[in-house]
Amino acid sequence: MMEKVIGIDLGTFNSCVAVGEGGTPVVIANRGGYKVTPSMVAITEAGKRLVGHIAKRQAVTNAENTVYAAKRLIGRKFRSPQVEAVMGNVPYRIVEGPHEDVRIQIRDKVHSVPEISSMLLQEMKAVAEDYLGHAVDKAVVTVPAYFNDGQRQATRDAGAIAGLDVIRIINEPTAAALAYGFGKNIDRRVAVYDLGGGTFDISLMEVSSQGVFKVISTSGDTMLGGEDFDQRIIDWLVEGFKSEHDIDLRQDRMALQRLKDAAEKAKCELSMVTETEVNLPFIISSARSEALHLQRQFTRSQLELITADLVERTIAICAQTLEDAGLEKEEIEDIILVGGMTRMPSVQRAVAKFYGREPCKGVHPDEVVALGAAIQGAALLDDGAEMILLDVTPHTLGIMVHGGTFEEVIPQNSTVPTSRSKVFTTVRDGQTTVKILIMQGEHERGRENVLLGEFQLTGLRSAAAGVVEVEVTFDINADGIVSVQAKDLDTGKEQSITVTASSDLTKDEIDIMVDDAQSHAIARREDEELQVARQEVETLLADIAKLFPKVEEMVAGSDFGRDAIDKARTVVDRAKGLMTTGDTQVLREQIEGLARTQRMFKGVVGRVG
Length: 609
Ligand code: AMP
Known about the structure:
Elements: E1 5-10, E2 14-21, E3 24-27, E4 37-38, E5 40-43, E6 49-51, H1 53-57, E7 66-68, H2 81-87, E8 93-96, E9 102-106, E10 109-112, H3 113-132, E11 138-143, H4 149-161, E12 165-171, H5 172-181, E13 188-195, E14 200-207, E15 212-221, H6 226-245, H7 253-269, E16 275-285, E17 291-299, H8 300-325, E18 334-338, H9 345-355, H10 368-381, E19 388-392, E20 397-400, E21 406-410, E22 415-416, E23 418-427, E24 434-440, E25 450-457, E26 467-476, E27 482-488, E28 494-498, H11 507-555, H12 559-577, H13 584-608
Parallel strand pairs: 1-11, 11-12, 13-18, 15-19
Antiparallel strand pairs: 1-2, 2-3, 2-4, 5-6, 5-7, 8-9, 9-10, 13-14, 14-15, 16-17, 19-22, 20-21, 20-24, 23-26, 24-25, 26-27, 27-28
The chain binds adenosine monophosphate (AMP).
Adenosine monophosphate binds at residues 11-14, 196-197, 226, 264, 267-268, 271, 339-341, 343-344, 366.
């Protein structure tokens, strides 16, 4: 059995898994035939865990216990504006965790965000295992180029909880460029425009025939995506309904959920057709308890009008990124579209107009990232592979020094892996320790940036007050994970930390979650076996029911025949009564009995007929 590394695009709204097969990456469809799986997790009243399409299907009736867009929360602190923004927008409960982190309450249990993501990863792992027919334990997982260290580490934790060894984390645009350049033997400078359900990313890259894929520059907006387009449609529908009936549909959670689904559906339809109808019967009752319906015609031009500024925002970021990279539009030789939202005609038009060329067709915007991850996975397994990925750090890294100013050590968009040192002088105050705060961000006031970690450089000479010279070295490895070392140039004393040791989850917490995930994986398999057995009982029952009248007609004349028929009826009745059992073994016994009856019936019919 060949070892395989799967590539997983763990998206805000949809996830996708691919694997290298005989040198070519393929996207794997789940049992339902879908190549993308909604990034949704729900727990039913009976305590059953649902992931993907089945979770999405029940979201309207179980909104409070259905989690989506967890990617917007991963690796973030509870008290952050981003988390606050998400809290105001989702029906599920977000609570503060023990490490100032974010937790999600579903029914009576509180889950960490990596745990929720791990349920999605487990599902993608299971989809791949079903297809390959053997266990998979290694994966390359993609993250937005913009993800900071904490978000990357939390994604890695999610992999660990799911029982997956995440052998590499790569940026989504890099993965897209890999899939685009795969086997093409080209040298080109390309833009990867990625507008997904929750985030927008734009990356400029160099794709080379030597197998080197280099990110020149990357930027984006983590709070701009398809959901914002949906929200515009919802607002438009709600306002229309309000002016007609004087009722605010936003007050009704169920109505809002139905509006959300209808808005997204209409948006997607308008990528294909120029007009559609939004039709939501019995959306709410009037003050006089009459059932009210929402029905409106919606055109592509209306949609384009109410979302024009969102598209424009992405274009402004494209312009800024070009400027940051010191490039002209004409120097971009191809544009790769990624993310479901790039199917929207006005998005394609705006991109084409801005760059002055048509975006490249032929790479599937929903699948291209997973394919790239699978290509990278296969390359990592194969020692001989020549592919080298060169990513850049999405944020400036540095330390906060005396007076709260932020001092840069590694500038934004530096190629990783990298290592850089800088000497700082700091005031000693006669103390023997210096505190070093490691930060990520572009703001000159340290406080405005993200604190990655801190440590004390101890044992400085305690002589008279004066200045201490400290050499700080930052290392970033291929996964984008940072470690920092500080050295007192006076005494030669060194201290270092790996910043990612400060993940939001402790080792013990992760261990508990891993156990929990494993027992769920077992439960899932058992549940599947139960479903298969139940299905088989049903098929046999249907088959026997079809044969029954014929058999009865043929043998009812003899005592022996009547006896056999009675017996068969008992077998059938017992099996019917046990259909709802949760015990697979009991069902298997029924299958045996039914199969005997079926054989006997077929024998009778066959002999006579
Ligand atoms: P992604 O995060 O890449 O899976 O993209 C999901 C987003 O793309 C969601 O907001 C979808 O509503 C949107 N989307 C998917 N298909 C289409 C389509 N045909 N037209 C417009 N938007 C779409």
